[in-house]
Amino acid sequence: MGPHSTGTHRMRTAITVERWTPLSIASVALAVAVLIGLAFGPLVLGANAVDELTTLFIYVILAVMWNALAGYGGLVSVGQQAFFGLGAYAAVRLADFGVGVYPALVLGALLVGLVSLPISAFMLRLKAGEFAIGMWVVAELAHLLVNLDSLVQGETGTSLIALNAYAAETRHALTYWVALGAMTALLGTVFALLRSRVGAAIQAIRDNEEAADAVGVRVLRTKRIVFVLAAFGAGMAGALWLATAISFQPKTYFSVQWTAYMIFMVLVGGLGTFEGAILGAVIFFAIEAWFGSAGVWYLVGLGATALVFALFLPRGLWGVLESRTGWRLLPVGYRLRFSDGGSPLPHGRTASVPVHAGGSTSQG
Fold first, then answer.
1. Whole-angstrom Cα distance, residue 169 to residue 227?
2. Please, are residues 54 and 244 in contact by the beta-carbon 8 Å criterion?
3. At what angle do helices 101-123 and 128-147 cross, to 10 degrees?
4. In this predicted model, what pLDDT tens digit does every residue of 131-175 receive, in sequence order?
5. pLDDT per residue over 312-325, tens digit each?
6. Contacting residues for 1 by C-beta, under 8 A, at least 6 apart
7. pTM
8. Distances from the Cα of 164 to the Cα of 58, 101, 174, angstroms
9. How far apart are CA 300 and CA 195, in angstroms?
């Protein structure tokens, strides 16, 4: 069968557009059940397991936020540690002003989101590498400015001493529930955002900013939405990390290693896939648990693994699995399904292509 006849065959093939599949419905139901089950964690699990799960929740937040910014928005940042550190710093400051320690964690993240608004006015005018380097500069400036605060005492740092008002078991449980609630809320927000018209616009800008602008997408406004959301999420993660560590040392919280962790999780799990970021966070959590005591060789291994994935598996583990099986557990785009018994596409009978609200299509 030649190319012409193949084209005729495709023209006669009925195509349906679908978003939810039985697998994705079951997956979402299972995810909700798991989240409900996790809510009972502190009541049935030991203190160590509660702390470990709290750490995992923070990693999921970091991975999902960076993936929303870079994987879906195309805004590759190496300076997200700025918001991570500012979130922790804001929580320390608010608690010092007398705000309740747990409300301070959330309010601190909200303040970080507000601070990111004026930052976005400058940074979103930069492109590609300029944006990435610019964000790193922002992180360094934030680090220096926080060091000037007399409460922080330079690199000596300070502590969230208000947490000492709680018994250790109560503190661990409350931190766990706040982390679980924040992770659930942020996952739901990103999921809903990516499925909306704004989500379609975000991906259109990533694919071709000039073309998106030409068809009426408000580029700067749309990029600002995902930028501020990612900043808020990173700030929330920083505040939660402070609640687990208690001590605040600027050098630790404004370290570029936090962004390196985000990049690692997303690259390994699957850049630009909702499920991939979560999978990457789980993998990173497991690697850290098993090899974290290896010191510098642990960091060398992380870097080498990220490099291998970037070179040979740029779609990450979930991207490869999705292309081979067609699975979409948490669909943020649409799927084109061909009704014939043939296989018009290289990887089976279906293709996954987000359809924009305006009727156009783009890469998902």
1. 36
2. yes
3. 140
4. 999 999 999 999 999 999 888 888 888 888 888 888 888 999 999
5. 888 888 888 888 88
6. 9
7. 0.86
8. 22, 10, 13
9. 37
